[in-house]
From TrEMBL:
Pathway assigned to this chain's UniProt record: Fermentation; pyruvate fermentation to lactate; (S)-lactate from pyruvate: step 1/1
PANTHER family attached to this UniProt entry: L-2-HYDROXYCARBOXYLATE DEHYDROGENASE (NAD(P)(+)), L-LACTATE DEHYDROGENASE
Transmembrane parts of this sequence: 18-35
The organism of origin for this protein: Terrabacter tumescens
Regulation acting on activity, per entry: Allosterically activated by fructose 1,6-bisphosphate (FBP).
Gene from which this protein is expressed: ldh
List of residues binding beta-D-fructose 1,6-bisphosphate: 166, 181
Top-rank EC class of the record's enzyme: oxidoreductase
Name by which UniProt lists this protein: L-lactate dehydrogenase
Length: 327
């Protein structure tokens, strides 16, 4: 960050500002996670429900002494997000038990269409991260509505799905989730797919990992079961508690850190693809470099024919939904 001179000859680094659209379960949890991790010096929440957003900001502010120093604002006026470095969009229709992410598209796109142009006005230099489901279709629509360059607007994509995959693989193999390296790509939804061929535990290819008695730990049956569990994880959480919020709050915070700290971290976010293995004009998750300017180079991970076919099928599913809503 640039250094600014202040009156009296003192100097300080420019503070960072993190904006959140939507003070529901995901938005409030995201603010909490960001404060706990000390992501930004200023956290601002915007929501059309004035009483709700003011209460969330006040509740968070009451715990400031227990986290890295920050200031929290909440308002039903979008000006609260002015000059944000990063804005995360969490507002949208609530997913109901048994409802697919793609079913949410119409109402959520309407909310995004009404709010996003104003966000661009008040924070013209911000990087925008879409979290609201169905995130791939919403991200594509947001690019059309906002006119922002593709590097400055992208979706949280399958960062959370990849975390779910790594958790399940860690449980199955008895290692720490941090030692599992595996990506879920494609739609953040029912057509997503794990990249088994490039996954590893430590430096050992996942498909060669063995149990203590020498057996292959992840045969086809185990992989199919885990892949299904990843897809169905959100539905089970929603059925039990009404919403997913903790894991996506942590996942989105990790993305924000990569932007604000210019980490150049590789994360499977949803971004506009152009000739990625021949796939273009659709927002899908593939591993990409995340830095201060947003999303950078998309990494062409080696894939099997089956994996590439699955990615293309996922692209068609998302593209078809986008077309139904005029995008």
């Amino acid at each position: 960050m640039s250094v600014e001179a202040l009156a009296g000859g003192t100097r300080r680094r420019r503070t960072t500002k993190f904006g959140i659209v939507g003070a529901g379960a995901v938005g409030a949890t995201l603010a909490y996670a960001a404060l706990m991790r000390g992501v930004a010096q200023n956290v601002a929440l915007f929501d059309v429900n004035a009483a709700k957003v003011h209460a969330e900001a006040l509740d968070l502010s009451h715990g400031i002494q227990f986290v890295p120093m920050a200031h929290v604002d909440g308002s039903d006026d979008v000006e609260v997000l002015a000059d944000s470095d990063v804005i995360v969009f969490t507002a949208g229709a609530k997913q109901k038990p048994g409802q697919s992410r793609l079913d949410l598209a119409e109402s959520t796109i309407g909310i995004m269409r009404a709010i996003l142009p104003r966000l661009v006005e008040v924070a013209p230099d911000a990087v925008h991260v879409m979290v609201t489901n169905p995130v791939d279709v919403v991200t594509y629509a947001a690019l059309q509505v906002s006119g922002l360059p593709p590097e400055r607007l992208f979706g949280s994509g399958t960062v959370l799905d990849s975390s779910r995959l790594r958790f399940l693989l860690a449980e199955h193999t008895g290692v720490a989730a941090q030692s599992v390296h595996a990506y879920v790509i494609g739609e953040h939804g029912d057509s997503e797919l794990p990249l088994w061929s490039s996954a590893s535990i430590g430096s050992v290819p996942l498909l060669q990992w063995r149990t203590p008695d020498g057996r292959i730990a992840l045969d086809e049956e185990a992989r199919d079961r885990i892949a299904t569990d990843v897809v169905q994880s959100a539905y089970r959480v929603i059925e039990g508690k009404g919403a997913t919020n903790y894991a996506i709050g942590l996942a989105a915070t990790r993305i924000i850190e990569a932007v604000l700290y210019d980490e150049r971290r590789i994360l499977p976010v949803s971004s506009l693809l152009e000739d990625y293995y021949g796939i273009s004009d659709v927002c899908l998750s593939v591993p990409a470099i995340i830095h201060a300017g947003g999303v950078g180079e998309r990494i062409e991970v080696p894939m099997t024919d089956a994996e590439l076919s699955g990615l293309r099928a996922s692209a068609e599913a998302v593209r078809g939904t986008a077309r139904r809503f005029g995008f």
